Amino acid sequence: MTHKPFGFYERFLKRPFDCILAGLALVVLSPVLGVTALLVRIKLGRPVIFAQDRPGRNEKIFRLYKFRSMTDGRDEKGELLPDDLRLPKFGRLLRSTSLDELPELFNIFRGDMAIVGPRPLLTEYLPYYRGDEHRRHEVRPGLTGLAQINGRNAIASWEERFAYDLQYVDRITFLGDVKILFGTVVKVFKRSDIQVGSEIKAGRLDAARENAIEDHDTTL
User: Fold this and answer.
1) How many domains does the chain contain in total?
2) Residue 1 belongs to a domain
3) Burial state string for 90-108 with b = 16 or more CB within 10 A and e = fewer than 16
4) 220 belongs to a structural domain
5) Could you tell me the residue range of the domain that residue 63 belongs to?
6) pTM of the prediction?
7) How far apart are alpha carbons 139 and 59 in whole angstroms?
8) How many CA atoms lie within 13 A of 96 on its CB side?
9) How far is CA 122 from the centre of its chain?
């Protein structure tokens, strides 16, 4: 994949700004991180941090970190129950307030992610991307992005999400990132346009999922 930075901001300033903002956020939010981690340990058990492989820039796989939001509930055969049955009220609260996303600040500081960019989806979806949709991985994935301020998880189709992602990739600007950050803060506080534990239609994925795909990524 080749990607030419849109301008001076993307080429020279975006990454330093990400490091500075992520570092400041880790310091300022350290009490919130600590309390959340303690509550997760008490209510959901170990591990406190949920780690999962996601495709990053140029589709290089990295480990994404979140606070755990689901239990290890299993059926009589010892198999994990469906996600919706393992997502308790506390887990739903974590997701609806986006507190589960806070450990991703470490991913940003490490360089796996950016503060603003296309959200990193599951690696298992990679074979089902169409043509230009792979271009969403030409830049670092983000804690939040253009799709998130234009509907969050309430966006009905993958095509619409990816269209926003590509729109962002093609024109990354300082003012654009500021606008996305401001819009994200507003949506988080309003807790709007989010469907916790919901299913999103993705008709062009494989036959087993063509009717509905469970959304494992409750995003900002």
Assistant:
1) 1
2) no
3) ebebbbbebbbbbbbbbbb
4) no
5) 8-214
6) 0.84
7) 9
8) 14
9) 10
